[in-house]
Structures are given as structure tokens and as C-alpha cells.
UniProtKB/TrEMBL annotation:
The keyword Protein biosynthesis does not apply. Pfam families: Beta-prop_IFT122_1st, WD40. WD repeats lie at residues 218-259, 260-301, 372-404, 405-446, 447-488, 489-521, 529-570, 571-612, 733-765, 766-807, 808-849, 850-882, 890-931, 932-973, 974-1015, 1016-1057, 1058-1099, 1100-1141, 1142-1183. Signal peptide: none annotated. InterPro entries: Beta-prop_IFT122_1st, WD40_repeat_CS, WD40_rpt. SMART domains: WD40. Keywords: WD repeat. This is IFT122 first beta-propeller domain-containing protein. Residues 479-642 form the IFT122 first beta-propeller domain.
Amino acid sequence: MKCTFEHNKGLKDVLAILNHIDVQILSLIIEILLKEKFSDSIGFLQKYQNQKVYEQSIFKVENIQSFDKWWKLDTVQENIKKFTNVLISMKNHDFNQNDYSTKNYLQTKQLLIQEIIENKKIIQFLKFLVHLTAIDDLFIQSGSNSLHLLVEMKINLKNQFFEGIKIRNTSLIGANFFRCNLNRSGFENVDINGINLNEAQLFNCKWKKIRLNQLIKLDGHSGYVYSVCFSPDGTTLASGSEDKSIRLWDVKTGQQKAILKGNKNAVISLCFSPDGTTLVSGSADNSHHLWDVKTKKKKLKLQGPYKTIYSVCFSPDGTKLVSCGDVKDSIFSILDLDIDEIDDKDFFIFLWDVSTGKFKFLKNFAHNLALSVCFSPDSTTLASGSADNSICLWYLKTEKLKIKLKDHSDKILSLCFSPDGTTLASGSADKSICLWDLKTGQLKRKLKDHSDKVLSVCFSPDSTTLASGSADKSICLWDLKTGQLKRKLKDHNDKVLSVCFSPDGTTLASGSSDKSICFWETNLEQYKTQGHSNTVCSVCFSPDGNTLASCSDDKSIRLWEAQTGRQKSKLDGHNDTVCSVCFSFDGMTLASGGADKSIRLWDVKTGQQKAKLNGHTNLIYSVCITPDVRINLFVYGKLRQDNKNQYQITIKFFSNHFIFLLMVLHQHLVVQISLFVYGMLKQDNKKQNWMVIQIQSIQYASIDDKDFFIFLWDVSTGKFKFLKNFAHNLALSVCFSPDSTTLASGSADNSICLWYLKTEKLKIKLKDHSDKILSLCFSPDGTTLASGSADKSICLWDLKTGQLKRKLKDHSDKVLSVCFSPDSTTLASGSADKSICLWDLKTGQLKRKLKDHNDKVLSVCFSPDGTTLASGSSDKSICFWETNLEQYKTQGHSNTVCSVCFSPDGNTLASCSDDKSIRLWEAQTGRQKSKLDGHNDTVCSVCFSFDGMTLASGGADKSIRLWDVKTGQQKAKLNGHTNLIYSVCITPDGNTLASSSADKSIRLWEIKTGQQKLILDNHQIFFQSLYFSPDGTTLASGGADKSIRLWDVKTGQQKAKLDGHTNLIYSVCISPDCTTLASGSADKSICLWDVKAGQQKAKLIGHKDDVLSVCFSPDGTTLASGSADKSIRLWDVKTGQLKAKLKGHFNYVESVCFSPDGMTLASGSADNSIRLWEIKTAKEIEISENHYQNILLQFKTPLVQNNPLAHSVTTYPTILLISEQLSFQAKEALVFNGEFVNYKGYDFLSILKQKECCILQDQLQLKYKCN
């Protein structure tokens, strides 16, 4: 792009202005824009140039006092002016017009990132632009580009509030949105491959035209999907399954078009005729079926000579069909063959005439155990792959062998000719793919990446890409020009049995043993992330926890920013696998040991190699630094036998400390070296910072060749002391105690030895494992030793007594690594079973299982603060995990909301619940102001005093409590009732409180003294509800005897009894003018009564279940009712007509209450939520994320436990993944309603489900269906 430089220069000039602006203003602006609901951000900011406008608005923002005192109005105004100019420039800039994630802007973007990556003010501004998209549509593209840059720069975006943002026309590949709030977000034409949505909230999102490799997942088959095949026109996909059925799918919609039934056993192979009118199936029931694709009817059944048909294929001209399989014995008499001449392992190849249904036995084509057949594009050649590891190419015309291809070391499972006819691909049980040149018959290239059998191969229509499906559950896409792996697709949960490209090459279909079919997009550009390209052997946190070091089979060491996963540096120097890394105590030095037989010391700050330690003749397994030293190296291997001075090691040492050297030796000398720092180096050392260690000769005659010996060295003299008692058969793992007094060694003889370093004697030998010890770790408090073994168990040993404290079992394969948390409360274990277990050391229980690796977990390491665990795996990735087991808690009740009540000024809403708590909420924002704890059982009712200073509550604990609303402290506790209290109510003058109870009494209390005034208890029934008349003279009660009673408050005498309901009364309420009483009943009706006459005025019918609560509006014109039918209804009091029906709750509506201004209605429900409703519009008021908390609170148990995909032991998602092949993650993401549609029009909600997210609407429907 010609103007790239100019655009970049212009953008840098605009951003440079930010260096002169206090960025605290950004959050202030967003807050005001949201609060005042301005959508024109520039217009709003320009108004701020008026002092009065500014003063009127700026001080409306809460916590303005928290800003620095020097930040005065004129300073702020000047900042706003500058910032307004930045936004005006940005609005008209190319950055706000075009997609910066495209190739055209690659150079611009790279230069820009170099300039801004360390500029915190610009980073804050980019975040501001992202948030601005939720408010001002004019900045959607600049906000989208900003988010793209933040992702590219690996800025920490975890746990961010992104509600309502609008992102379009960009790429967010590899973004980490762990536990982000993305509610109401709108994404359009966004590439989300490889993003981490683990634990994110996705409520009411609108994501359209989304680009994601996996397009859709088709579920329908009840058995393995053995074969998938596209029709020639690309509109239909056929799938054959173990469930004996063939299914035809509409490629555009993903809907099932037809099920073809007729096979009596598994359908193993499918193929469309070239014209797309016929589908042939090969089955384990020894038959071929030809199906009419249009009518979905069977055209012809070809009863073959097979027991099982493994492969079928149409010739390109459509006239012939070839198949192979194992034959029945009867075929030999049919073909007039001498059975003695036939190898019993022969799998015959038969050629069928499609028009007649007759077959021709190609005797010359007999190929030992032929498992796969395929026609060349020109129909002249037939290829067959065999269990004898060979491929045969046959001339069809002459029926003679053309050539035999051999290179595989195991059977050939799949064959495919390239559409251009130049190449044959073969997939084998030896885990490799061979590409053969058909012109020369030579092997062109061998492709290796799969870790299990290659079961299917398929060329793209343009012959540039090969897809391979494997028993390792993955699909590989290969670039045929370079032979490089382009992409790895990993969303199946079992073997991938079949892969097939669509005719246009844009889509790949795959069938799997997990019974599903997946569609994948194939034309997306491959995004290569920074990461290891081979097994990650070891990971280690720096002492400050900010950096993670990793090393790999790819010969490199990498340093990562622990919070974001951004690669800080790559340390190259080793020329073979790097097996182990370890930081020095001060974090300035990194030690590494590798298969190139060298130890290297690296400067962490510069990334430069400080030293190389040579001497070994074999690979170095481990390096480690003890807590109390500067350098500690563990080195496994042998001394170089060709060393001129065989018994001398020279080490350059970067510390002015004395060295004490401990060595563990094999017969051929060095197995392990540890360096300890105890004091100063001798000042007379001629070569400062160098040490020469002289090894005396050793007599080997009396040494067992399996013993690993330990030697103690005096570095000042270069002499060692042979510690014969330290001999430990085949020691594989060693570890020092935190106080450096004890050495633990684990051995291949299944034992652990603890050695006194001071006395050089064996302390104790620990035995319980039944296989070799692979890993050891002391707890930081020095009380416990953990050992991981090849017997799949972990032992915890009490170091004081030497006794086995506990044995931990859950892994299904070898335990390769163990590590204690810094507080010694948790143990992490990594295993060859691909999982990590976190164990509670107090109880011995499994706390958590982490299962996102696809291969052995070789190394685990806690961060110094214990909040994060890093793991390295043979799958070439590093995962970061959150170890804080406290789950994210939202503010809100965790059980049924029994009652809600507005304060007289309308600013506070009180609620009480079955969860035993009372909560006070800010009515405008939904923010929880305080939580009042004191009741030890359900709190059934709350009521404010007339002045709003006191709150009364009654509960199932038989007590009434009075609370100071301002301080949240309990003022008094009123005892007297002998059963649960249903209702409390305070007179308008604030002097008297009434309470009704299941003890069948109503009591009146003097609030000031807390003394009981009257007891109304000469009744045989309990009263569910109470309500004082606005003038305070009358108390209404509704009870289980289906009647309403009116009481004289002064005398306590019954004034009237109102009958008319046919079931118990749940709620009563008197109108503000004292003329009308409303009652709600279990008979599903509401009655309106004339209070003066005691007569029923009207009966309101509409609810389909019990009416649990009624409330008059302050003007008396509207009545609200809440019901067990989950609805709220608004009634016109004058006419008795229904005005509106409010829906939103998922369970009983227990309580309704109008705000004092009559504009808002609050409702509390058995779905654990409180909702606010706007009376004018009859719609729910959404208060930011608190609205969504109401949905979350429907679940009394952790959401993951409601997830049908969850395992028996709860698993948890990664917070960060570092891998060259990124994976789309959405484990435990919370999805509620919304749209999720990819660019081809597929709803990819099924993919989110597959990723183990929680679809809340599905779970709520299931929950209440069960109820």
C-alpha cells in the first residue's frame, strides 16, 4: 500500500498528543457518557468547553473526590480540549475507516506496535476506544482496530468489562478473554480463531458473520461415523455410520435431509457417482447398495463376495465401481478357483459394472490384505493399499501391476490421488503420510506430525492442500508445495475416521468415532503464534512471578510474560533438546541443560548466554537451584571420556561466593552436580570467578554397575570425599529440603532415600511405591515430601516420623512431576494421562482436575504467589491455570427472594431470602449497599419504617429484628413467637409493628421499647399476610381459613371478616385512600373489597397459579400482582382490566412492591433474582451487569455441575494457553440467548456446547421442567 508510511506517521502524530494528557480522564469520560446516555462523544466533549456545563456534569460522577487535589477544573478542561482534538482527528483518520488486520496494513501495524507497545497512555487510549464502541457508533472501526492491536501486543485483557462493545471487520485471533464480561456485545465479520472465552459471560450477544475454522458440528448418528463424502455439486454431504444408517445433510444449513436405511451392519465406505445422482455404500453386511440421491430410494443391491467391504470407489467416468474387502470362502467355488492356490490372507479386488450390477474378479489384482482402493483421475490406474505395508498401482486396461511402492512400516489405511493426477497420498498405521510422484514412482515427501494411525487422507480440489485424519483425534492440513503443516484441527473427542473436501475446496468435512461430523473452513490464512514447535520439557517461574521460562525439544528456551503470554525473548544456543530450566534465586540468571550434553547460563535481562559448561558425554536431564543459594545445577550424564584431563571439570562462576559441590556419580562418573553457596571465594584465586575441580582417580573393581554414588567436594582444594553410604540403585530424581540439611533421592528400585548431609548417613528409606520414582518435591514448610511414581500414585511422607501420611490416586498413567504450592496447602501433579491434579493436602481430596493438554504433562510449577500454575506438555504447549479455588461470586441472593420493599424515599430497596440474609440495594444502579446477617433461618418479610431509618424483618428462626439502615447494625431482637414469622408491617407513624406467625397469632409491638403491646391469638388458623391502612387505624390480615380480617389497631378487636376466596390468602394490601383492599389467593384469583362496606367489589381472573403478592401503586390506580405462574400482572383498579403482563422470572414471583414515585416496580422470585420494571413501558429495567447476575442466581449449585458435559470430577479451564497451534476455547463460558452465526450462516452454538460452555437458557428450561 503506497500510503502506508503516511498513514502510520499521521496516526503516530495523533497519538503523540496523548502524552500530554492525564489518562485518568478517559475512565471519567466513559462513565459520564454511560451515565448521561450520550451517543455523540465529540459533541458531548465540546460542550465541556463551557465552564458551567462542565461543573454541572463533572460533579455528578461518583468518587470525584478520589482524584488528586491538584487536578482542578481548568486543568481538566484543558485536558478535555486536547482529548477532543484527538477524537476529531481519529474520527477522520484511516484508522477509523479501514481494517488494520488485513495484509495491506501489515507493515503499518508492525511499525506502529514497535512505537506504542511500551507506552501505557496509548494502551489506555486504545482500551478507551474499545469501550467507546458501546456508546458511539462513529468509532466502531477504530475501536475494532484498537482491540486488534491490543490482542497483537498481548496486552492483558483477562477479567475485563466489555459489555455492549461493537466490533466489526477485524481479527481477534488468539485473544484471551478469560472471564471477560462480553454481555450484549456485537461482533460482525470478526475472526475469532484461537480465542479464549473460558468463563466469559456471553448474554444477549449478537455475533454475525463470524470467522471460525470449525463451521458446524452435526450430531445425529448413534455410532462411529466411518465415512463422509460431498456430492459433486457441494450441496449435500453423505455420512455412513456404525449405526447402520446413511444420512444426507444440507451443506448450506447443516440440516439433515434424509436417512437411508437398508444395511444390516455398519456402513464403512461411501462414494458419490461423478454426476451426483447415485451414492454407493459399502457395508460390514457384505453388500453394496446403490442409492438414488434425488428420490432417496435404493436403486440396486450388489451382493458381494465379501464378509466386510472396506473401501468403495467410482471410476471418474461413472461406469465402474471398485471395492475391496475380506472374502467369504464360498467365493472360491463361484470363481472356479483352487482354494489351495489362494493365500488365506488375500483380500480380493472386484470391478463392478454399475449398469448391470455384475462384477469382474481381477485375479491378477490380488493384493495381500488390501484395505483401501482408489481410481486415478483419468481412470487408467487403480491404487490399492495393503496390510503388508505396500501400495500397488495397477493398469486397468491390461490388468497388470504397474509399480509397487514401499516405504511405510505398517499397514496402508487410506489412499487418495491428487486431482491433477501427479501425486498419490497414502496414510498408514505407522502414523505417517507418504506423497508419491506418479510419474517416477519415487517418494516425494514424508509428512509426520500425527501421534497415532493416519486413517484418512484427502486432497483439496486444487491439489495444493492435503487433509489427514488420525486416531490421535486430530486433522492436519498440509501445504503440498512446502510439505509444512499449515493447520491442526482438534475438536473431535475420538478418532477421526474420514475427511473430505467440498468441491470448491472451502470446506472440509470430518467423521469421527465420537459419532459426530464437523465442517471446517479451509481457506483462512494460517496464523502462527509464538510458541514451541515441539514437546515442552520443563517450565519454571521466576522468583518474582512475572516471567515464565520454558524449554523444548525444538532446541529453544523462551521467556514469557506470565500475565499475558507475550514472548519476551527466545534463547538460542543449544543444538538439541533442552530438557530443563531453572532460575537463580535472584532471578537474574537462568540455567539450562540439554541433550547436546551442555549446561548453559543465561542473563535473563539481556537474553545473552553468560557461560557454557561442558564435560558430559550424554544428555543432561535436569538443572535446579536451591532456595538458599545463587547457583545450583543438577546434571545427569557422564564425564567426557576424551577429556585431556579426564578427572577435571572447569566451571565459570558468576558470584563472589565460596562453592560447596555435591556430586552423584555412576560407574562412569558424573550423574549429578549441585552447587551450594556458603561464603567467599579465595581472594588469591589467580583466575577470579573460575573454579578448577580436580577429580582423583577411582577404583571401579568393587563398584556395582547399577549404583549411583554421591561424592562431596571441597572446592577450595579440588578434592572430593567419596560418600559410599549414599549409593542408591538407579537414582532418577533428587531434591534438597528447604533448610538444605537433607537430600532425598528417588530410584528405579521403587524406593526413596533421605540422607543427612551433615553426617553423611542414611536417615531413612521410604518404601510404598510399586514402580520407579520419577519426581520428588519437599513442601516449603519442610514437613512433607511428595513422590510421584510410574505406579500412577503420589505418596505424601511425614518427614518427622518417616511414615506414609497419605496416598493419592486418580491418575491413570505415570506421575511425571509434582510441585507444592508456596503455602504448602496444595500439591499439583502432572501425568502421562494428559491431566494435572490439584490436591488438598489437609484432606487428601482431589480439589480440581485440569485437562486441556493433548499429551503427557511433563512439568508443573507454581508461581511464587501461588495463584497460578504453569504446565508444559508433549503436545508442545504451555498452559497457565488459576489455582485460587474460590469461585467468582456475584452479589445477590443464593436462594428464593421472599420479600422486597422500597424505602420511603425510593433510593433503597430491601430484600430478604431463604439464604438467611437481608440485602440493601441502591435502587438506581442495582449496587448492593449492605448485607444484614443475623437470622439463622429463612427471612420471610421486611418492612421499612416511615422515616426510612429502621428496617424490620421476620423469619423462620421465630424472631423479629430491627436494623439501623444507615449502619447496617441490628438495633433490637423481638422474641415471643413460637413458630416462623410470615409477615411484618410497621404503622405509618412508625410507632407500632405488627407480626403474623405460624403459631396462629398476630402480635403488636412498640418499636421504641421493643415491648409487646397486644396479642391476637384466639384463632385456630395462621395468618400469611398483614397490612396497615395508610391512616394507621386498621390492620388487615389474610389467612389459611380463606378469609380476610380487619382489626382495630387501638383495641385489637376484629372489625370485619371478608369471605369470598376458596383457598388460603397469601397477600393483602390497602389502597392509599383507604377505600379498597386487594387480596391474592391460592385459588388463583385477586379480589378487590370495599373496606367501609366489607363487600367484594371485583374479582380479577388471569393468573394460572397461586397469587402470592399484591401491591397498590402510590396513586391507587394500578394494582400489581405476582404469581406462582412466574408472571407479574398490572391491573386497572377502576375497571378491573388487565393493563400489562410482565414476563422475565423463571420461577414463582414471591413479592412485588411499587417505588414511592410509582414509576418502578420491584419483584422478588424463587429464581433467586430481583428485577426492576418500568411501569410506563411495562419492560424490565436492565441495570448493567447486575441484570445478568439475576440469571446467574437461578443456579444454587456451581454452573459447571449443571453442565451435562462436565466430568464426574470437576475440571477447570486454562486462563492462558501458549501454543503454536491455537485452540478455540469456551469452557464454562456462560451463554444466555443471543445470536452466534458464522459467515456461512451456520449457528455455531453447537460448537460452543462442544467446548463445554454453559447454555443457560437450556439449563433453566430443563430445571423448571423438572420442577
